[in-house]
């Protein structure tokens, strides 16, 4: 035993030496509280730590939860002798004390904590080998109805103890559709959405409010868009039970090396009692005390909150539901107000979440006979002619009943109850019992008996009677024709500008039939001489006088003389054997006199379009006017401010007399005047608009005066600057498209120009070797128009010594001998320049100390030149 122990310590010592535990640091050190983590199940005899003794301590002692596994050598080597097991003890709380030679504690005890780290050495196990559960048909998908539960002894904080559930198989499986799903973390089993909804599309047709598309085959759209779906496919009648095999894996189900277990779940599908009730029929105008229970809905489990939803947003919604699911009508219904109701019953859980889809409740309102017949008007008037034959229809009385159509409640029955006067006898009329048509029953009527009969007619439905009144007027037969008082109204002369609406003539015919009936009323028609419909005749209903009125302007030029013929007619047809004869016609002759009218232009505005470069003398347009009296016309122009045009006095043709220019303004607007030749020289004015189309007639030019382009001298790097070109032509849609080039070959070694876009280009130096002077760079700009126009422009670029924010013109850039004044000026300028340079240098030295100035960066910008 002793030998073994020594051997053991020897081994340990060797290990200890081999692994470098000797050095102070991670694996050795003085006694102090420490924590170590060690994997469970590891090979035993592992060294944990080497404690170093401080005199007078010579040995160490270990106490606490050693479980006979942890040991300490006298020299302070802490180790363990058996594989650890986290599931037995996950933390060992040890104490180590240092002892002196006498065994007395001189240091500590200090706590030493050993945490046992987990390895996946335990299988997950289901708590039950078999589970049973039930689910209601149409339950909400995703709502767990059963939990399976497995445990794993491994550390749940590590993947080793993290379990993942999975359905391995569902039996039976129809069409490869999973009806069940499991939450891989909680083990909660619920219904799936997929494959549940194979039913008809219900509710979508009523969803005017929602414009979104139903993602499933059964959706309900609510005013506040709320999608409710339920499992339709699980049908206990088809298949009342299912079996699932469920696996659980540790390592979060992610590792190939995970352990697993399976269990079996039997599921019974129970019938859903959440079903729409049968449609309800409810008699209207019920006198029973309300509310009256009409139907009910029931959620599958107690405790649901029920409510009704009225999608029609009725002003009056007379239904309610109580917390049992019983549905009531709260007020008497009225079929004549609304004959059918459709609304929805909703069941929610205690948190207000819908438990399932809403149920449609249909209520049909049954008619009762609660509306009496109503007469079409207080008195219904008919006319009957004297000579009307027996049985002829006089008219039809149509009463109304609001009760349901085509039922006995609205079937009406007509009966004459009284005739006044009873002259020459009673019962002159009869009425068809159901149709209400009045007929002559006994004989033709005679006006001398009485001109009027009053009938009282009883209209009845099955319960109600209403009296309606009919007045029958006996009218004379139309056996007289209208006779004109004279057949010729003579000659009538009118000026052609006589106002529309004026009465120009009254005509009169008479009819001997009974006054104020359709037999004596006279309508006058113009039947000849007025094809344009310029005249009309209004009849005075009392006197039958006809007023001839101008309806449309008269026109001397088209109708100077008209022979107008009138016909007088009755609205009622003439009796058989009587016809209109010549006495019903009359005529007159209308003379229209001329009024001198101004010429009329054929258009209010004349437009013409020409290219702006048309030659002088080109015809650019014409205008036409006519004089209504046919007089000749002389044309002239007015407002030709630019003096560009002339008009041919006779033809109205317009010619250019000067170069036209679109850029001066287009269209060019002038007035044309047409004047009668002779007569009263009336004239009228119209507009002539000349639209000028563009011709490329403007060469490109620089967009502005580039007087102040400069580079700082000496140039430290090639620089560039940007310039812009323009021209005055019209550039439709895209703007101008200039091209740029250096005009002279000799400049091309020093300069290059590159196009940026249609208007802008960049002028760059090709090198840095420029003198301190002005360079004039000529650049060719082409506008690419039709025809292309090109011009050469000059950019003056100064190379100069740069100051703070600009450039000084180099001295002596002006050729020629200076005058005395100039010399003095130059002298003063030079002195000033020197002064400024000194000042600038001084300020620079003060402010810009250490900062390197980048000349080329400055040079690449266009800056104003200080002069
Ligand atoms: C699973 O079982 C464990 C141990 O019995 C328990 O603590 C846990 O709450 C259970 N989980 C569920 C979802 O029932
Ligand atoms: C567990 O389910 C979640 C979603 O519910 C999913 O994102 C995750 O990938 C699943 N894990 C496994 C291992 O299947
Ligand atoms: C109900 O019926 C009574 C007669 O039965 C009737 O007077 C009343 O107008 C009816 N009400 C409605 C709303 O139709
Ligand atoms: C018919 O009734 C009207 C009132 O509606 C009355 O003025 C008239 O005199 C009556 N006619 C006869 C012939 O009774
Ligand atoms: C009407 O005019 C025609 C033609 O001008 C003439 O012959 C006739 O005599 C005139 N009649 C009357 C009544 O003036
Ligand atoms: C037209 O008929 C009426 C009688 O209806 C008669 O008096 C008149 O003379 C007739 N006129 C002509 C022109 O025949
Ligand atoms: C004058 O203009 C009209 C349209 O206003 C045109 O129809 C006609 O042909 C033109 N006449 C001439 C001679 O150009
Ligand atoms: C052309 O380029 C210049 C400089 O880059 C810029 O200012 C201008 O807006 C551009 N013009 C067009 C039409 O892009």
Automatic annotation (TrEMBL):
One GO cellular-component annotation of the UniProt record comes to: cell surface
Keyword presence, Aminoacyl-tRNA synthetase: no
Per the record's keyword annotation, is Signal included, yes or no? yes
Pfam families referenced in this protein's UniProt entry, alphabetically: Cadherin
Gene3D superfamilies found in the cross-reference section? Cadherins
Q: How does it sit in the membrane?
A: Single-pass type I membrane protein
Question: What are the boundaries of the signal sequence?
Answer: 1-22
Keywords in alphabetical order: Calcium, Cell adhesion, Cell membrane, Glycoprotein, Membrane, Metal-binding, Repeat, Signal, Transmembrane, Transmembrane helix
Q: What highest taxon heads this organism's lineage? A: Eukaryota
Give the Cadherin domain ranges: 58-126, 127-265, 261-375, 376-484, 486-601, 602-702, 716-812
Q: Which GO terms describe its biological process?
A: adherens junction organization; calcium-dependent cell-cell adhesion via plasma membrane cell adhesion molecules; cell migration; cell morphogenesis; cell-cell adhesion mediated by cadherin; cell-cell junction assembly; germinal center B cell differentiation; homophilic cell adhesion via plasma membrane adhesion molecules
What is its subcellular localisation?
Cell membrane
Please classify the protein's predominant subcellular localization into one broad category. Answer: membrane
SUPFAM superfamilies noted in UniProt: Cadherin-like
List the CDD domains hit by this protein, alphabetically. Cadherin_repeat
Transmembrane ranges, per UniProt, are 820-843
GO MF, one term, reads:
beta-catenin binding
Would you tell me the protein name for this molecule?
A: Cadherin-17
Q: Which gene encodes it?
A: CDH17
